[in-house]
Amino acid sequence: MKKHRFIYIYYLPVLVLLVSIGLFNTGCGILPKPDQFQLYKTSSAPIDGFILSDITMAKATKDNELLLLPNGMVSLKRPNITHSSFSAITSFSSGDGLRFYFRTDRRKYESEPGLVFEFTKNGSIVYDNGVKVAETDTIKAVPGKKDKIIILSDADYFQITVECDTVYKGRTKLVSSEFVLIESINSNALLSAIYYDNIYGFNRDELLEITEESYRTREQKIILK
């Protein structure tokens, strides 16, 4: 009996180490991976995040807020949500602005960029699979100014709005996806009040009026003005 007890105590640290390694490798949440995060993580519908750049260049600072440092890049995913509305209040203190990718995948955006929206201090540009479909120098990012960006994606229709100004609305042949990718263009950028959910149940004008309070939890009914 004493011999068995000695063997158990002797090998206990080894067993603990092996179990810990196994839990880490299977992603059970004991030791979260440094390039992964969640927004609204206590909600029944969290947003899965993945850092695509150097991990020091992006950080979830609050439950619905992201900080991107120069050239930081993340992907956000809502599983099984492809007809969606995405919005965030953006601001940056330096650099050029932000780039958004949608209707693509975080694993292939470099070769298949999908729909790309560049919101910079020089203006706004929209690309459909590499082809420029819109450009304006009147809707631009201003350092220190907060702007609400809304991207609607519904079947073959998509619309991009900054505050009350429509950058582009039209149709595309690109297939919808669960991802929105966000990239800092040499900027220190903050995205707050992030919202990413199913578009069904709202018309496009109502989505422009979603109040900031409705972003605080994903388990309450969205409050409209």
Describe, in plain words, how this protein is organized in 3D.
The chain is mostly beta strands. The protein folds into two domains: 1-31; 33-215, Sandwich (Jelly Rolls), CATH 2.60.120. It has two helices and 15 strands. The protein has helices at 2-25, 204-207, and strands at 36-39, 47-51, 58-62, 65-68, 73-77, 84-94, 97-102, 115-120, 123-128, 131-136, 147-154, 157-162, 165-171, 179-185, 188-198. An eight-stranded antiparallel sheet has the order 1-2-5-14-7-8-9-10, with no helix packed on it. A seven-stranded antiparallel sheet has the order 3-4-15-6-11-12-13, with no helix packed on it. A hairpin with a 2-residue loop joins β11 and β12 (157-162). The chain is globular.
Which helices and strands, and how do they pair?
Elements: H1 2-25, E1 36-39, E2 47-51, E3 58-62, E4 65-68, E5 73-77, E6 84-94, E7 97-102, E8 115-120, E9 123-128, E10 131-136, E11 147-154, E12 157-162, E13 165-171, E14 179-185, E15 188-198, H2 204-207
Antiparallel strand pairs: 1-2, 2-5, 3-4, 4-15, 5-14, 6-11, 6-15, 7-8, 7-14, 8-9, 9-10, 11-12, 12-13
The biggest beta sheet is recorded as:
8 strands, antiparallel
Strand order of the largest sheet: 1-2-5-14-7-8-9-10
Would you list the SSEs in sequence order as H and E?
HEEEEEEEEEEEEEEEH
The CATH class label of the largest domain is Mainly Beta
Residue share in helix? 10-25%
